[in-house]
Amino acid sequence: MTTPIRSAAVRWFTPNRFGLAVLLITAYAVIPFAGSDYLLDAVLTPFLALALAALGLNLLTGYAGQVSLGSAAYLAVGAYAAYNFNLRLPGLPFLASLVAAGFVAAAVGIVFGLPSLRLRGFYLAVSTLAAQFFVQWALTKFGWFSNNNPSGVIDAPPLAVAGLSFSGAVGRYVFSLTVVVVATLLGTRLLRSQVGRNFMALRDHEVAAKVIGVPLLRTKLLAFGVSSFLIGVAGVLWAFAYLRTVEPAGFNLDRSFQILFMIIIGGLASIRGAFLGAAFIVVFPLLLSRFGAALLGNVFDSGVLEMSQRIVIGALIIGLLIAEPCGLIALVDRVADKIRRRVFPPQSRPIHN
Amino acid sequence: MSLIATAPGNSLIVARARERATVHSNVAGGTPRAAGAVRVDAGAPVLTLQSISLSFGGVTALDGIDLAVAKGEIRAIIGPNGAGKSSLLNVVSGLYRPGRGVVQLGSERFRHVPTARLAAVGVARTFQNLALFKGLSVLDNVMMGLVHCRRAGFVRQILSTPQARREEAKARAAAEEAITFLHLGAVKHQLAGGLPYGILKRVELARALVARPRLLLLDEPLAGVTLGEKRDLAAHVRNARDAYDTTIVLIEHDIGVVMGLSDRIAVLDYGRKIADGSPDEVRSDQAVIDAYLGVAHEGETELVI
């Protein structure tokens, strides 16, 4: 028997937490100095924004079992809300605009989540398309949202929090990283609490959940609210840290599908899955295009190359999901488990009663 | 057994008289509790059904069912397939709205039991084909049984305020107790999705018990398991009644299993109650024998193909 202090320390210092610590140290202390501007600007910042959006959607779809095809709408709501808070309330700190934008997205999400009280599965998915089309239409139709820009385009001001400027590539990356880390932490806490259990209960057996007293209405709307809050914040990052000039057309149905594919490929009901899925969708096309251009650049023109990339990615997704329907995260876990068994042969564990 | 051995028709009258007495005592206020060793307390029915009728389109599922379940008893409801047993349980848990009749749970009378408030009223149930949350661990599944007691909102839960922590600790302790009680300790951290059926039956029982319900409805708790598991489960059901001081209504279509388990048995056939009494009475009841074995009616011609 080990002493209590040591066993407590050992319990706290699990391999997972060790891995997380290494990842965070790398993300904060190594990448900002070692990464090129291209890596930070074109790969990591969009990855972070989309990973947060995927996390938000995974909360709703993966954990609470409510399918949504309106993610891009909430991204847009977040982006435009933060823009307007920033523009129309000059004294408001940017972080306050960010959080307020999240709340606006949450409110819109709750409104468009109302059909979930009656509809399920595909029918609900179709009804969430309403959010997608309505928001895009409203942002284009009413000039107020974009400060009367004729095509609805908004230009994000430079990022600055409490006097500190985050306008460079490194700054925008660090800002996004911090927001995503905090949001992920809060999301994780939520999922480990009773509310998280309620979400999963709702997903796994709605009638049983109702019978034992899960408040269905509140739980469903909360899932929509929290999910669109996170997606809204992701939209702020997308508009302010990544693109800096956005238009409503950028938040189209393709983007919604992209986020949905991220969680399906990464793994439903898994936080790490959302990140893996986002990494796959963001990074893989870049790798493929570099690889393709280097290999076949002088044989085919860029149009053919792009087309063939799509075919390759599509085929890979189909292959992956046949091999592992639970997504990349299940694949990673299986491989990690195999390695662990090889390195540390399993010992017979006492059964705790 | 306090029930006088009479023909089922008479016991029905006894039950009806008792229902009237209950209504009376409720008006007077408070539920009288019999002290002493007699567990089956005839004075205060936990569940009373008054002429419950239910039909789906033209099909009558339940036809004027009266039933009174006394505190502390194990009451079985049996009957052949399609007799209306599950419908009856669904009426009591509010999943179906009866066409006619009143359901009385403790002192509250309902035309349609509000399912969302069921747990708060003190009723828990299990389902015929298991209704567990596959993506949750056994411990989390059992903790879900206390969800109706949780008061801390989601912000408090994220911030983990003292109230939220206290509630979580309390729920966990109660769940651990139920898990130990049903010998599920070895699997408590496993996901419910991958466990064998017999164990899941116990997990569902634990989830229902953890809230210490006044009335526990079990929909075929012994169906679909091996003979050995059936014996274990029957023992668990009896122990649960004693340890958790609850009242149990269970459904079975296997008449043999429930004979030894139940204090009283009600028999349904084609949506009507055809018998209600002690196991011995029911066993020797001609109407029950007819319903189970079939009877040749006069004037019925056999269809020859």
Automatic annotation (TrEMBL), chain A:
Membrane topology: Multi-pass membrane protein
A Pfam family recorded for this sequence: BPD_transp_2
Keywords on record: Cell membrane, Membrane, Transmembrane, Transmembrane helix
Compartments, record wording: Cell membrane
Molecular functions (GO terms): branched-chain amino acid transmembrane transporter activity
Transmembrane parts of this sequence: 39-60, 67-85, 91-114, 121-139, 159-187, 221-243, 255-271, 278-299, 311-332
Entries under CDD domains matching the protein: TM_PBP1_LivM_like
Superkingdom to which the source organism belongs: Bacteria
Main localisation: membrane
A GO term from the CC aspect: plasma membrane
Protein name: ABC transporter permease
